[in-house]
Every structure is written in structure tokens, then in C-alpha cells.
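Pipeline run #58 for the internal structure catalog. This entry was flagged by the ingest filter as a single-chain record with no existing model, so it goes straight to prediction. Upstream metadata was stripped on purpose; only the residue string is passed forward. Reviewer on rotation: M.T. Logging verbosity set to normal.
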Amino acid sequence: MDHLLPEVQFDAAKTFELDFNFLKAIVESFLNQFKGFINSWKDMADFEKILEYFNIKNTLLENVMQDWRKDYMFGYQFLNGCNPVMIKKCTEIPDKFPVTHEMVKSFLKRGVTLQEEIKAGNIYIVDYEILEGVPTSSDLVFLTAPLCLLYKNRLDQIVPIAIQLSQTPGEKSPIFLPSDNEYDWMLAKMWVKSADFIVHQLVTHLLKTHLTSEVFEVAMYRQLPAVHPVYKLLKPHVRFTIAINAAAREKLISENGIISKISSLSANGMSEVIKKAMETLTYESLCFPETIEDRGMKDVPKYYYRDDGMMIWEAIHNFVSDVVEIYYESDETVKRDVEIQRFVKDVSFGMNNSDTVQLPPPQLMTLSSGFDRFLSVHPKRLILKRTVFPESLKTRVELVKYLTVVIFNTSAQHAAVNFGQFDWYGWIPNSPTTMRKPPPEQKGKVDMDYIMESLPDLGRSSMALGTAWALSQFQKNELYLGEYPDTCFTEQPVKEAINTFRKNLDEVTNTIKSRNKGLAFDYGYLSPDKIPNSVAV
């Protein structure tokens, strides 16, 4: 990372802490502990042995280890796990997933047809079409693009009722059901969670928080002077982002990086997934309320990610509105602000053009601009389709929303999809990072030996566990949402707005803590006291 400009590099404390975490979890001394310890997995209990290294006192992870096979736990994770953005309400069964009422009628407990359950809003779907055709890193690991149909039962639990492990139905792609033998159903759910791991890491986490935040940071440095109020507002929310992304390009998503080692994808495969994701990446897809509405998830019970996210969004929106009103007396003031217009234009650079653009190698990317210059995930040149972001802002309302998008995604959204990784990925069978046997093409052919041979081997499991642990750690001197250094703003009205923001966030924190007392599983990833200001890990 020495090629980075000094103002975007880690400070000494952050550099030491980051290196220490990765050394503790991933380097040779960690893996050496298990050499000869287990030659191959014999049963699920073997996975517990590598967890002994961490001496875990983690109630949620312990609950995952206990209940991971149960359908309610599988479904719960689509609402409140590491990747709570894939599930959406099913309005019709897609042709590529020919589930019939006869197949699932025994799982529908209200005594009505599948079509009636769909109309009532009780059926949900998760589709990993983005993984179709993506090449694997070798012939020794496998990847699927599954579909999963879920049902809201009378206990308001979201449970799976049908799984297809490919995008093409047929004799070699059966639809697995809860009534199948336990090993068929267990393995089908593992395949879904393995696909979910890939999409979470590359799209939900990497693309939509890390890389988008980097674009906002670069545009800020390029276009806004340090005295500009928006610069002061955003700077705490992009702290260390360029630096952490540089480290990620080197350690995580490079040709020989950790993701290549623990998953089914090479750097080429990762690039393909990112390329596909870029085709649907829009400004609206980063607006939290719109994403909830678009997926039909406004009224789903026990969706704490949505509930807490909406409270955080509103608190940020109100704070930003207060700040904007202090510095911009009218819409005309926004339009006349050349620097803010250049900032927005820089972010959107080329996005409204339907042409494609070649990306430079990541080692050459320092403070260049635009999404088209940043969304590269391996050293070779890559062609990405440009997408649509605003090129200008005309009103104070538009400016408030835009800045809310930036702050929310660099703070709350990243916290929601990052800091639960050890909770949900710490138990390897719950979310296999890769699969070593091909998906079954017939029912009734799977046993526990086949499942154990399918799961990640010792090396991949150990490295995946260490990585999940390292990425879930908070910095000792972390700055959390609502904490603005005194040097940011000196004007009294803004200081008062910050104090109001903090009080609102404290109320949200108390609301979440009070709610969690009555829950079997705490959901605290979006509690403001656990939301770092920026993408820095």
C-alpha cells in the first residue's frame, strides 16, 4: 500500500491492528496447529475442533452450531444473517423453477393452494442466477446457481419448501423438498448457503459497500476542498476505505488471495460475478428504503435488518437535512455549488453512457475517479458495463438523499453485512465456502460420507474460519456513527445538529437493546454503538 497518498493510508495503530488480526488468524502458525490433526473430516464434530483455537464465548455461534440443520435457522439467515438482501417476495413461480402445489402442499399449513399463498404474500424466493456459468478455479471444486422457495408459516418463521440447484430444470436438476431423505435435504441447503457465501462476499459486501465507498472517497478528495461542508460531513465516513481496499486487493481478492483459496472461484471467476452485478447496480439500489420496497419486504415479520436499518436511515437523513439547511438556503444554492456538482459528476463519471470501458490494473489505481476506474478485482484488464448514477443535483432534497446514501452505505450497511461473519460463517457446515463434490443429479444417492467429502477440506476450513474472525473484529479506537472529531465542524449550529443526531442514535440503540431482550437471537449489527463510521475492515 506504499503507493497510496499519505492522506488515505492507515495510521500506525490501524496498520498494526490489521496486520495482527490477519497474522493471528491466517498465517502459517495458525494452520500449522492442525497439520496431522485431522487428515480428512470424518463427521461434523471434527469442525468443532478447529473452533477450539478461538475459545469462543459466542452465544449466537453456539446456537448456529446447535440448530443449523433446522429449516427455521436456514430461513432466518435470509432475514438477519450476513446477507439479508437476497430474499424477496415471490409474486409468481418462474418457469425455470417449476414448483407445483402438489410438490409442496404438505408444507403449506394454512390449508390453501400454493397460488393462494403467493397472493397472500406468504411465499418468498432467493435466486442466485448471477452465478450461472461462472467458471470455477479448478475441476476439484464446484459451484451452482440455485433457487430456493421459502414459506412464511403460522409461527411467522421463514422456512424453505423447495430447492433447485441449477437455473435449468430437468431430470438432472431435481427439485429437493423437506420430505426428501435427510441427507438430500441437508446437502441441498448447504449448496444454497455456499452460493450465498459467494454472492455475499463479492456483491453485497465487496461491491456494494467497499468499492462504492471508495468511489465516493476518491471523488471527495478530487472535487471538494477541505473547507467545504460536505467534505467535513463525509470525511469521517470514508476514513481508511481506500487503504482497506488496497489491502483487500492484495490479500483477499487477488489471483492468490484468500478468497481464491477458500472458495470455488479464481480471480477470473470473481471478476465475472462483479461484472454481472454491475449490470444491475444503480443509485436506487443503494437507497435503503427503495431496496426494501422493491423486494416486497416491507411487512415481513422478524426482519430486524429492515426495522433497524429504517431507523438508522431516518436518523441519518434527519441529521443530513439539518446540516444541508444550515449551509444551503435554497435549491438554487445547491445548483450553484460548482464543487458539489463536480463531486456528483465525478462519481457518476461515464455511468450514463452505454459503452463499455477498460479498467486499469488495480496496482495503478490510486486517486483516479469514477466507478469505471475502481470496480476491478483482479490484475488483468476487465470490461464492465457502465451504469446509471446522478450526474447533478438540483434541490436540497436531492442533496440530502444523496449524502444519506453515502453515509448509510459506508457505515450502517457495511456493519450489517460485515460484522456477523464469524457468527454465521464460524460453523463451516452452515455456510460452506466451497463444495468439493458435484451437486447430486438424482435423489436418494447422498449419504453422510458424501456430504463430508463435499464440505471444504481442512486447509480451506481453517483459513475461512480465520478470515471470518479477522474481518469481524472492531478496531480498539473505532469511531462509531455519530462521532465527529471536533476538527470537522466549528460552527455552533452544526455542533447542535450533531448532538441531536447522537441523541437520536442513542434512542435507536436503546430501542434495539430493549427489543433484543425478548429475542432468542440478538440482532445487534445495526445498533448504532456497533456501527463504525466507515468501511475500514
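catalog note: DSSP finds 21 helices and seven strands in the chain.
catalog note: Strands lie at 88-89, 123-127, 147-152, 158-164, 175-176, 356-358, 383-385.
status: ready for reviewer M.T.
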